[in-house]
Design brief:
The protein is mostly beta strands and about 130 residues long. The chain is about 0% helix and about 50% strand.
């Protein structure tokens, strides 16, 4: 079993920055693909970014490319989401997810590909 705990959310003005962290505990962090999803009221949970083990490959949604960056520190069992140039439409609950399944093609972007989920952290961007 893996426990994922997100932190770093909060209230920020448009154009500002936040860095989210997701600390993993329990099972070994090794071999886990990690991802960030987000969900705003009335919308489905959507893919934001993902990173492979041990971190050579990253994926970002088109809506966040050039503004958000996913990274991981395997020594600390932690994955990060650096969010810059935030917009009001980035307001959502952000969830960390993990998977030990083989990830190929579009599976990186799909919610069912990930076995473990955190409780989420709220990000609110004011205009």
């Amino acid at each position: 079993q893996v426990q994922l705990i997100e932190s770093g959310g909060g209230l920020v003005q448009a154009g500002g920055s936040l860095r989210l962290s997701c600390a993993a505990s329990g099972r070994s962090f090794s071999l886990f693909a990690m991802a960030w999803f987000r969900q705003s009221p009335g919308n489905e949970r959507e893919f934001v970014a993902a990173i492979s083990w041990p971190g050579r490959t990253t994926y970002h949604a088109d809506s966040v490319k050039g503004r958000f960056t996913v990274s991981r520190d395997n020594a600390k069992n932690t994955v990060y989401l650096q969010m810059n140039s935030l917009k009001p439409e980035d307001t959502a609950v952000y969830y960390c997810a993990a998977s030990r399944r083989g990830m190929t093609g579009s599976s990186w972007y799909d919610r069912p590909s990930y076995e473990y989920w955190g409780q989420g952290t709220q990000v609110t961007v004011s205009s």
